[in-house]
Design brief:
Elements: H1 4-11, E1 18-19, H2 22-30, E2 34-38, H3 42-45, E3 49-50, E4 54-55, H4 67-76, E5 82-87, H5 91-102, E6 106-112, H6 113-118, E7 123-124, H7 127-135
Parallel strand pairs: 1-6, 2-4, 2-5, 5-6
Antiparallel strand pairs: 3-7
Amino acid sequence: MLSLSALLLAAAPPPQVERIEPKAAAKLVAKDLAVLVDVREEAEIKSGMAAPALWFPSSRVGENEGAAFFAFLARNVKPRQQVIFYCAVGGRAERAAQQARRFGYWAANMGSFAAWEKAGLPVKRGPVVAQALRTQNASPQALREPPARPG
């Protein structure tokens, strides 16, 4: 039998999520006022991602009642920072932002990676993305920084 709070949560409309344009998102990230998160799946990000973005696949947002997603946010989003999501079109980013808001985060939906590219904003591709995928579990900073050069 479901508890009253579970019924109320299930019946409550999803929290409203702010929409934000890529250039506005980039300015907030550059000022350390926001964190950008790509929620596309691994196969999608191999073609590139926004240079300052972290990665958390949308398929994992709801796993174990969102426990891994909550831990990811707690590890990477500082108090008073906004968390801005994007995906291929905007739907998965919207759902991730709604879940982040349920966890108490100030969240926004930037829409799509294509919008970021169209705005002429920096993108990382190839080895930087591949290295980040290999080290995603080892380091929360993996998708923020390029791999160290052998020296």
